[in-house]
Amino acid sequence: MQSIRKKLIQAFSESNGEFLSGQALAEIAGCSRTAIWKHIEELRKEGFKLEAVRKKGYRIIDTPDSVTENKIRLGLNTKTLGQVIHYEESVPSTQKIAHDLAGSGAVEGTLVIADEQTAGRGRLMREWHSSSGNGIWMSLIMKPHLPPQKAPQFTLITAVAVVQAIEDVTGLQPQIKWPNDILIDGKKVTGILTELQAESDKINSIIIGIGMNVNHSIDHFPDEIRQIATSLSIEKGTRISRSKLVQTVLEKMESLYSLYMKEGFIPIKLLWESYAVSIGKRIRARTINGTIEGTALGITEEGVLKIEDGEGTIHRIYSADIEV
Ligand code: BT5
């Protein structure tokens, strides 16, 4: 069933709004015309508007404002990332589902996405506010053949992919605050959570959680984050297609990941630094071992933040919360 739907969506993606006959669809999907008709009805129930014209066939004329599997697949231009999609309306956390899937043989690029999270989380088990229908709450499973020490670089690769996607889709110009915050005008619009399933010398899976505030108005945020959070729609003043953003994040991520696997971290580092908010500025880094104040010099070739304090000592920061 599922593979027929996949082929159908793929055919509509490639048809660029042209009609596809029932016969052509049946041939592409390898099933009967009755089966095609049933799938078309399912798509209609999901909110897709399909025009049916005698002797011409079907074409999609409108799509729902959703992040369902079908909606993300329609027009997705990737080879591996997002080729398997698990969509749920409401889950405690996409991260938890992705961990379970990764542990039971999920392929690289598997995407878990939900309309709502009831127990979304950030680093150190902090709460991640994930209200229904207006954000992107997703976890991506990656399986690079690399040692576990490389995993933090994936936070930085993802940050670059998210910034590029936001720029492409909205024209806004976000900045990155090391290691995992994407900001617009100093307010957080996206958080990234990179987690690992690994053995001592090799990564089994990296689970990359991405939380993006997209169509929130300020009232959607609870009091405690109203001063520090924003959404793309608040910044842009219009609604933004969540599915288009998901597709673009996956596309950017796929090309940055391939660049990284071919050429290493240096090209990513250069891109990352061009979007970073804190480089050259005085910052305060709160780590589990205490607070360090100084000038942010940049990141190392491993993605570690370097801070020079008042005495000229250079500190290497592996994990911290940064105040700019
Ligand atoms: C993060 O943690 O920024 C990582 C957030 C990752 C969320 C994604 S959503 C999909 C996947 N499934 C999950 O359960 N998680 C991932 P951290 O740097 O620790 O920031 C957490 C802090 O951000 C909180 O303590 C709040 O201050 C603030 N915060 C919470 N919700 C927010 C929101 N929606 N927008 C902006 N800031 C928020």
List keywords for this structure.
alpha+beta; Arc Repressor Mutant, subunit A; SH3 type barrels; 3 domains; five-stranded antiparallel β-sheet; 33% helix; 28% strand; elongated; binds biotinyl-5-AMP
Protein model, in words:
The protein is of the alpha+beta class and 324 residues long. It has 3 domains: 2-62, Orthogonal Bundle (Arc Repressor Mutant, subunit A), CATH 1.10.10.10; 69-275, 2-Layer Sandwich (BirA Bifunctional Protein, domain 2), CATH 3.30.930.10; 282-323, SH3 type barrels, CATH 2.30.30. The protein has 9 helices and 14 strands. The protein has helices spanning 2-15, 22-29, 33-45, 69-73, 94-103, 151-170, 232-236, 242-263, 266-275; strands at residues 49-53, 57-62, 85-91, 111-117, 135-142, 175-177, 181-184, 187-198, 203-213, 282-287, 290-299, 305-308, 314-317, 321-323. Helix 6 (151-170) packs across helix 8 (242-263) and helix 6 (151-170) crosses helix 9 (266-275). The relative contact order is 0.11. Bound molecules: biotinyl-5-AMP. Biotinyl-5-AMP binds at residues 93-95, 117, 120-123, 126-130, 137-139, 180, 188, 191-193, 209-211, 213, 225, 229.
